Amino acid sequence: MSYRLLSYAGPGGPRGGLMIDETIYDLERETGFVSVKAALESGKPIELKRRSEPVRNARLAAPIPDPGNIFCAGANYTDHMAEMARAHGKEPGPTMKDLGEQPWHFVKTGRSSVVGPGATVKLPAFSKAVDWEVELVAVIGRAAKDVPLGSALDCVFGYTIGNDLSARDVMRRTKNPPDSPFHFDWVSQKCFDGACPLGPWIVPAAEIGDPQKLGLKLWVGAELMQDSNTDKMIFSVAEQIAMLSSRVTLQPGDLIMTGTPAGVGMPRKRFLRPGETVKLWIERIGELEHRVA
């Protein structure tokens, strides 16, 4: 049976839910799992044994409000690398993969950064240049360490949509020289409150099929900003999982944000403004919308 795994706002905080045929049911009443993360950590399949009463007027939260680690791929789309090179007055060159490098990730904060569908993200006071980045997010479903490339996707429970909001004007500590290991400020750039809108739900991996053949788009207001396909990733989802698992054990509920394509605001010097709405879409998953204030 086809379903979507999600969370919704309950009287005591977010509750796990299942959407079946456009109707939402409480996850605990349906399956016994108290939350989405608990379902993933159990390692057991989600079996729909019975039908409880539908949840009425459910307001969606982030599908995993309390994720484990959030790993974010940097510079992982060929079209995005080309636009950034041109923005700096350079011709696009070989990719890191062409040069024999491995996938590269940074870490985003969890509970402070993650917000759900329909959320209003308050732009941080310390930045005037918050940018958007639509990303396919792989949700890890079982513990994984030193996973071979050929079986890396077996670790993925499903996929959702993320917006890796980025404060571009605080990414460098200007009083540190560019060659200093302390030149970049990843926390200020990537980890402010609300910096990771996520949702609207998790689609099981079996329903997605090949994660390297998905269209993805992002609009700011009515203006289409990003329009690409996951086939433009430099390092595939499987390659990212294999690399990450060689360094750290991936845990159920961890998220891998797999990079963003061309169309971000930085090359055109166009950033998010208070009152704007951002809509993200990924093929076979759906739409995620949020506002900024």
- Sum up the overall morphology in one term: globular
Under the CATH scheme, which architecture of the largest domain would be assigned?
Alpha-Beta Complex
Topology order in helix (H) and strand (E) letters: EEEHHEEHEEEEEEEHEHEEHEEE
Mean of all residue-level pLDDT scores: 94
The proportion of strand residues reads 25-35%
Radius of gyration over all CA atoms, rounded? 19 Å
Number of helices: 6
* Major sheet details: 7 strands, mixed
**Level of helix content?**
10-25%
Q: Ends: how far apart?
A: 39 Å
Remind me, CATH topology of the largest domain? Fumarylacetoacetate hydrolase, domain 2
**Oligomeric assembly:** single chain
What is the topology, as strand order, of the major beta sheet? Answer: 6-5-16-10-11-13-7
* Structural class computed from helices and strand pairing: alpha+beta
Low-confidence residue ranges: none
Number of domains: 2
Number of β-strand runs: 18
Walkthrough of the structure:
This protein is of the alpha+beta class and about 290 residues long. It folds into 2 domains: about 5-60, no CATH class; about 70-290, Fumarylacetoacetase-like, C-terminal domain (Fumarylacetoacetate hydrolase, domain 2, Alpha-Beta Complex), CATH 3.90.850. About 15% of the residues lie in helices and about 30% in strands. The strands form 4 sheets. A 7-stranded mixed beta sheet has the order 6-5-16-10-11-13-7. Strand 1 and strand 2 form a beta hairpin.
Task: Present the secondary structure layout.
Blueprint: E1 4-10, E2 13-20, E3 23-26, H1 27-31, H2 36-42, E4 60-61, E5 70-73, H3 78-87, E6 105-108, E7 114-115, E8 120-121, E9 130-131, E10 134-140, E11 156-163, E12 166-167, H4 186-190, E13 196-204, H5 205-208, E14 215-220, E15 223-229, H6 237-247, E16 255-257, E17 277-282, E18 286-292
